[in-house]
Design a protein that fits this description.
Keywords: Cytoplasm
CATH topology: Rossmann fold
Number of strands: 8
Family: Belongs to the dienelactone hydrolase family.
Oligomer: single chain
Largest sheet: 8 strands, mixed
Protein name: Carboxymethylenebutenolidase homolog
CATH superfamily: Alpha/Beta hydrolase fold, catalytic domain
Structural class: alpha/beta
Strand order of the largest sheet: 1-2-4-3-5-6-7-8
Subcellular location: Cytoplasm, Cytosol
GO molecular function: hydrolase activity
Radius of gyration: 17 Å
CATH class: Alpha Beta
Shape: globular
Strand content: 15-25%
Order of helices and strands: EEEHEHHEHEEHEHH
CATH architecture: 3-Layer(aba) Sandwich
Length: about 240
């Protein structure tokens, strides 16, 4: 990790004051937030939360944004009932906390969600996006899950999967230039490894001046200079999903 005393800077940013347009449902053994567009569609996106869990309003805001762009969006509780990280928690305990919440061990939950989307929602083309912890989970899924069509990893913690680059599906990686947890040398190495090993379409994009969490954890109205990059990141994410779903 880039900074052992603060192993994840997801607390940089804002908690949106946002209620959500969707509803909470039970999907097999886990709870999930789901939002559906008014017109019927067979396209869905699984949204993987960051360390603050599936109930963070910011993540639901992004899920609802996907819905306004025509997708069924579902954000399951990938911590399976375990507590999400709280800003008041002691960072010294973070590594022990995250060991019991492995971004590479969510396959059972993803299978349950895929079945729900296909059987209950009529989804045929399904992609995945994720933030930070969820971004690492996206990379894991793009390496092994044959049932997903594409993925967008937003500031995913690369160090969790640094030796694995043979992606099965087109994947878009979003990073901030000033991200303390995913330093630029890690991003450069990721690009090199993808170039050598990856047989599918991928893109790695670095957004100038942006810190960790900028697409879903920065309020657009706080720093005017950040707003274009927040909007660009969101637009790029939607465009990638539109291209492959």
């Amino acid at each position: 990790m880039a900074n052992e005393s603060r192993p994840c800077p997801c607390d940089i940013g804002d908690r949106f004051d946002y209620g959500g347009r969707g509803q909470e449902v039970q999907v097999g053994h886990i709870k999930a937030y789901i939002c559906k567009p008014s017109a019927s569609t067979d396209k869905a996106v699984i949204v993987i939360h960051d360390i603050f869990g599936w109930q963070l309003p910011n993540t639901r805001y992004i899920a609802d944004m996907l819905t306004t762009n025509g997708y069924i969006a579902i954000c399951p509780d990938f911590f399976v009932g375990q507590e999400a990280w709280k800003p008041s928690n002691d960072w010294a305990s973070f590594n022990d906390w995250v060991k019991t919440r492995d971004a590479g061990k969510i396959d059972k939950e993803v299978d349950v969600v895929l079945k729900y989307l296909k059987d209950q929602c009529g989804a045929k083309k399904i992609g995945v996006i994720g933030f930070c912890w969820g971004g690492a989970a996206v990379q894991h899924l793009m390496l092994k899950n044959p049932h997903l069509k594409t993925g967008v990893s937003l500031y995913g913690v690369i160090s969790r999967f640094e030796d694995k680059h043979s992606l099965l599906h087109p994947t878009f990686f979003i990073f901030g230039e000033k991200d303390n947890i995913v330093p630029l040398e890690q991003v450069t190495l990721l690009e090199q490894k993808l170039k050598q090993n990856c047989k599918v379409d991928y893109e790695v994009k670095i957004y100038p001046g942006q810190t960790h969490g900028f697409v879903h954890r920065k309020r657009e109205d706080i720093n005017p200079q950040d707003k274009p990059f927040i909007e660009e990141g969101r637009k790029d994410m939607i465009n990638w999903l539109n291209k492959y779903l």
